[in-house]
Amino acid sequence: MMRITNGMMTSNTKNNININKLNEDRLNTQIATGQVISRPSEDPVVAIRALRLNTNLSQLTQYYKKNIPDAEAWLNVTETALKQTNQIFTNIKGNLTTGASDDNTPNDRQKILESLKGLRAELYSSGNADYAERTVFTGYRTGESLTFLATDTDLNSEYMIHETFDAKALETFNYITSDLDDETEVTQNEINRIRLSYDNIMSSGTPTNITLADGSTIPVTMKSISGETQATIDSIYTGAPDNGAYLIPETGELILGKTAAANYANAATAGQATFEYTKNQWNSGDLRPEHYFACTQKTGTPLKTTYFNYDLMDDGTGKMVPDPTKPNFKNQNMEIEISFNQKITINTHANEVYTHDIGRDIDDLLRVTQDVVDAEEKVTAAEKKLAAASDADKATVQKELDAANKEFSLKKARMQKMFSEGLDRFDAYADRNNVAIANIGSMQSRLSITKERVADQLQSFKELADKNINAELTESSIDFSNAKLALEAAQLAAGKISQQTLLNYL
To answer: Helices (DSSP H) in 174-219: which residue ranges?
Structure first.
């Protein structure tokens, strides 16, 4: 048999008492901190699970408290802007309905004219809506407004704009020529035109041609109407070369000859035609071209790069530039991650709602309305002239009055027709705007569902994390009392054992 000495008993007793003290200290720490472990070595499985659960909690908190509210705010700002735009469309349609009537007085037409001018000025202002100083309709360029502002320092910046057109861009437009000396010379002409997105094009660097989808071209000649007589202006609008086109820089119109228009229509069915032009005079409210077109800013401070909007190619020096064979503008989706591996696109693209043709349509309506106002003034002036004319001059003045009345009648009929057609156009613009609002509602609904799910996940992970790391205080308290009794018992037994020695036994 193995001999047990007093030293061995004393050593074992000390170890046992120390173990009891360690157990009591562990349970005391659990009660004090409320956690099962205080260091990973106590239970590696609990520690690893706690790290994973805490990571998930951090991600869910980011989604629920930051990403989702950010997306909600962005969508709310966008929706408000679109609803404001919808109201502008409603007001425009109200003016068109009134303008299409045959019962309008000169005063009524003047009111319509002023109202349309005001609505034109407000048209794109809603597109500058921003959230936390980030413009919501401009893709990745959240630091730039959609339109030029009156405070901008680059209103004289020169842009080379690469614009593309489809078959719908070619339209027939009624142009009325007049000669007050002969009623028979007041005629209505059908011209073929393409409206550029901008007016007041630069006269220098005159474009040379329109490039069609099949590679063929239509030669273009710059024809300014600034300071010209009405007869010269009429000849420009009605005298485009048969196989070519005139560009009127002041109005931004391409007037195509008959054969050129036919060639364009045939080629446009196969793809888009392209035309490049420069512009360097901008007004407050003009849409910035970099948000819509492949373009190059040639002057201004600072120069803006637009490369990331387009298909790129290496220019041979390692620099990435727009590929001239693929110059189409590319929309940029703003995405926010709202849950694990789930993203939502929050932005509405400017070219889905705030398109150039809306403003250009209003410009046309303003122009034809002003033409009617001017024609009516001619009639009034001719009537006064006739009343004051001598018998010898009355026949001549009567011809002038007849010509003025015919011009007024034709221009009034054209205006009413364009106002009626404008109702359909602006109904389409309003419908497109409503589709954008509906898409916002769809994203808001999706976001709401995700928010509820993330909230449930957040609560579930909190419970799992608490259950994993938190101590059961009642159970820990009972264990602590038992450990305390065990320590006291061990200390009592050790005291009795240490009193007995081998000498007592002998």
So the answer is: none
Q: Is pLDDT above 70 for 123?
A: yes
Cβ–Cβ under 8 Å, residues 20 and 487: yes
Residue 249 carries which side chain, given as an amino acid letter? P
* Best mean pLDDT range from 86-90, 137-141, 387-391: 86-90
Strand partners, 135: 130
Beta bridge partners of 303: none
Mind listing the pLDDT tens digit for each residue in 177-219?
876 556 557 888 999 999 999 999 987 766 778 988 888 899 9
Q: Of 192, 181, 365, 350, nearest to 268 (Cα)?
A: 192
Percent of the chain with pLDDT over 70: 79
Q: What's the token pair of residue 268?
A: 């446009």
What would you measure as the largest C-alpha separation in the chain, in angstroms?
168
CB atoms within 10 A of CB 386: 15
Which of 183, 174, 165 has the alpha carbon at shortest distance from 265?
Answer: 165
Q: H or E element: which one contains 295? A: strand 294-297
Q: Helix (H, G, I), strand (E, B), or coil: what is residue 148? A: coil
* pLDDT tier, 81 (very low <50, low <70, confident <90, very high otherwise): very high
User: Coil, strand or helix: which one is 215?
Assistant: coil
Q: How far is residue 241's CA from residue 223's CA, in Å, rounded to a whole number?
A: 12
Closest C-alpha to 136, from 286, 287, 333, 430: 333
pLDDT at 423: 94
* CA angle centred on 61, ends 60 and 65, rounded to 5°: 120
pLDDT band with cut points at 50, 70 and 90 for residue 432: very high
Dihedral over alpha carbons 201, 88, 117, 92 (to 10 degrees): 100
**Cα–Cα dist 193/426, whole Å:** 20
Is residue 433 within 8 Å of 86, Cβ to Cβ? Answer: yes
- Average pLDDT over the chain reads 84
Distance (Å, rounded) from C-alpha 463 to C-alpha 371? 75
DSSP state for residue 244 in the 8-state scheme = S
* Listed range (57-61, 394-398, 466-470) with the worst mean pLDDT: 466-470
Alpha helices, DSSP H only, in 333-472? 350-353, 356-388, 391-469
DSSP state string for 56-86: HHHHHHHIIIIIHHHHHHHHHHHHHHHHHHH
Residue 494: HSE in the Cβ half-sphere, 13 Å Cα cutoff: 19
- Contact yes or no for 405/376 (Cβ under 8 A): no
CA distance 141 to 357: 22
Cβ burial of 155 (10 Å; 0-12, 13-18, 19+) is: middle
